[in-house]
TrEMBL record:
Domain SnoaL-like, residue spans: 13-134
InterPro entries (alphabetical): NTF2-like_dom_sf (IPR032710), SnoaL-like (IPR037401)
Name of the featured protein: Nuclear transport factor 2 family protein
Taxonomy of the source species: Bacteria, Bacillati, Actinomycetota, Actinomycetes, Pseudonocardiales
Gene3D superfamilies xrefs: 3.10.450.50
Lineage: superkingdom: Bacteria
Pfam families reported for this sequence: SnoaL_4
Species this protein is from: Actinomycetospora aurantiaca
Amino acid sequence: MTTRTIEERLDEQESRTSISALVAGYCEGVDHGNLELFLSLWHADAEYLIPGGRGDFRGIEGIRRSQEVISKAWASTKHWTTNHTVAFEGVDVATGRSDCFAVCEHHDGKVSLVSATYVDRYERRAGDWRIAQRLVQRWFVSEGQDTKLLEPF
C-alpha cells in the first residue's frame, strides 16, 4: 500500500469538491437558464454527447448550441442528480458517474419524467477542473402528462 502525503490527500479532497460543483452547476445552469455558468463548466474542446436524436456537441460553440436544442424540446427542466461517484486516473484526470431524474415541461404545459445516467470525464487544466466529456445515457422519457397545480398548503 502506497502512503500518500497530507498534501496529496488534501488535493484529492479539494478536487472532489470542485468536481461535485461541476455536476451541481450543470443542473443549475440548465434549469435556471444560466448559460454563462453552464458554459464555464466545460473545457474549450469538450464533448457533450446525447444519443437518441438530441445530438453530439463538441467545443464550446457546440455546447452553446446544445442549449438551443434543449430549449426547443422543453419549456423548462428541473434536474436532480444523485449517486455521484468519482475515480481518479491521475492527479489531473478523473471519471465520474451520476444518476439523474428530471421533470421536463413541454411547451404545451404537459410534463415528462426523464431518467438518465451521466458518464463523465473531468480534467484539471491550468489548475481548473472542468468537464472534458459528458455522455448522457437516457433510460426513459415518459409521455407528456397533464398536471394541475395544487392549492398551497
